[in-house]
Amino acid sequence: MRQTLREETQAALALAAAVIGAGFASGSEILRFFSAYGALSWAGCVLAACVLAALATAAALLAGRLGAGDLGSLCACSLGASAGAVAAVVEGLMLVMTAGAMLSAMGELAALALPVHHAYALGLLATLAAAGWLARRGLSAMAALGLWLLPACLVLYGLLLYRRPEARAFLPGEPLPVHIWHTLPLAVAYAAMNVALAGGVLCELGQGRSRGSVARVCCLCALVLLVLLLAANAVLLPQASALSGAALPMVLLARPLGAVGYWACIAALSLAVMSTLIALLRTLARMLMPVLPGRWVWPAALCLPLLTALVGFVRLVEHMYPVMGALSALLFAWILLRSACCKAGRGKTRL
């Protein structure tokens, strides 16, 4: 029982590590989906965690039942060859864009941290090389990063919440809009996007696990993310309107803390970005395996996000993340509804 609990905890940490970068890497994501909508952002955080737990559990169980080892095969098995191919292409584009956003975020962090010429490009390339190497080591590398990542993020948010009073006021801002028809759909989109980005990890987790084990792993992951969401929202909400459009809001808020707080912020965000980038590269490589010769799979998985990173982090988060979230929600609804209909049809045939 103890070993099982340990394995489930490691799996939950690996799953959390797969989505934390895309959801928390800079603070821009929390601003875009939650903090920008005032008091209702708290309800959005709770809803996002609940939807993520439900969707992740359903996706992992479906992947285990169908024997799908990656998102492409999950789409094909659920939707049929033609529709599955279209869905897999859309999902692949989302993975590439998000991996590009993670690379761009690391370039921004390197430009802030390294006092050298071309720090952005050096940070981007070094991150890509390290993430590619770690991605080939499997879920154990992600679980190890997740083990360090959770306390690092909590320490960072604690520093920002209890910083000196004179550092609390960043900039004056306009009153925030509070519209439930904006907040709650965005919370669902946020959860669906993160489940889609972690789809490859979920397919791996669904193989050979019982229904109860899968549910416990996904619920524990959702609980971890809820704690981080609430903490990040508490940090960002008071200055949400003033920080809108900033590439790295957390770094801006950490500057008044001095060198210790600033470097703690850089370290936590770097871990978050790296963990998600590893998961994205693993998923992308597995999706490319059926369509490319073996020797070209990893070069393609590394080069495609590098091209997307040229778009820039802010543009990807502000404009593409909500679109990707909506597409993810529709894709999972389609897959799960089609699977339920097929299962019901088989039940009627047996009767």
Automatic annotation (TrEMBL):
<feature type="transmembrane region" description="Helical">
    <location>
        <begin position="320"/>
        <end position="341"/>
    </location>
</feature>
<feature type="transmembrane region" description="Helical">
    <location>
        <begin position="142"/>
        <end position="160"/>
    </location>
</feature>
<feature type="transmembrane region" description="Helical">
    <location>
        <begin position="180"/>
        <end position="202"/>
    </location>
</feature>
<keyword id="KW-0812">Transmembrane</keyword>
<keyword id="KW-1133">Transmembrane helix</keyword>
<feature type="transmembrane region" description="Helical">
    <location>
        <begin position="37"/>
        <end position="62"/>
    </location>
</feature>
<feature type="transmembrane region" description="Helical">
    <location>
        <begin position="117"/>
        <end position="135"/>
    </location>
</feature>
<feature type="transmembrane region" description="Helical">
    <location>
        <begin position="214"/>
        <end position="240"/>
    </location>
</feature>
<keyword id="KW-0472">Membrane</keyword>
<protein>
    <submittedName>
        <fullName>Uncharacterized protein</fullName>
    </submittedName>
</protein>
<feature type="transmembrane region" description="Helical">
    <location>
        <begin position="260"/>
        <end position="284"/>
    </location>
</feature>
<feature type="transmembrane region" description="Helical">
    <location>
        <begin position="296"/>
        <end position="314"/>
    </location>
</feature>
<feature type="transmembrane region" description="Helical">
    <location>
        <begin position="74"/>
        <end position="97"/>
    </location>
</feature>
<dbReference type="InterPro" id="IPR038728">
    <property type="entry name" value="YkvI-like"/>
</dbReference>
